[in-house]
Amino acid sequence: MFNKKKNNDTEENIMNTENSAENTEAQNLENSEAPETVEQVEEQTAEEKLQAEVQQLNDKYLRLYAEFDNYKRRTQKERVELLQTAGKDVIVSLLPVLDDFDRALKAMDTAADVAPVKEGILLVSTKLKNTLAQKGLKDVESINKDFNTDFHEAITNIPAPNDALKGKVIDEVEKGYTLNDNVIRFAKVVVGA
Length: 193
Fold this sequence. Notes:
The chain is an alpha+beta fold. It has helices at residues 2-85, 88-110, 114-134; strands spanning 137-139, 152-158, 169-174, 177-179, 182-185, 187-192.
């Protein structure tokens, strides 16, 4: 029995020694691999962070691109709508003048005297000019003014009746107009030479 106990103790010592050797080897391996493992973990973490950041930036880019594309579509649609309704306010303001012309035409059918009809037409004309002036339309003054290519288009030159009218507008064939100080139609004029 004593021998058996001694054998068991010996076996336990051998096993403990082997376990110690294995533990020491494992610890040595862990210690030697630990710096590499930590570096690998740090590299993997850094790589994952970079991939997440790239994914986030890519997502941000796609959202911004989609938002810009939507903005372009929306502004194009608004521009089309604006072009379709650009003259709406002018036309609405001209409707009363159109009504006045209709009444004048009816009055001309039954009128025996021309003077009241002429007076009515002058009132309608004045109303039309005032409505257009409120929208920014102005006549270009031409007669007896110096010829100016910014406002006038010369149709022909004629000999000036006197020296004071040389280089000036003698006659106006077609009126010119400006809209908010921008020429929308040049005055067609005759210039003295």
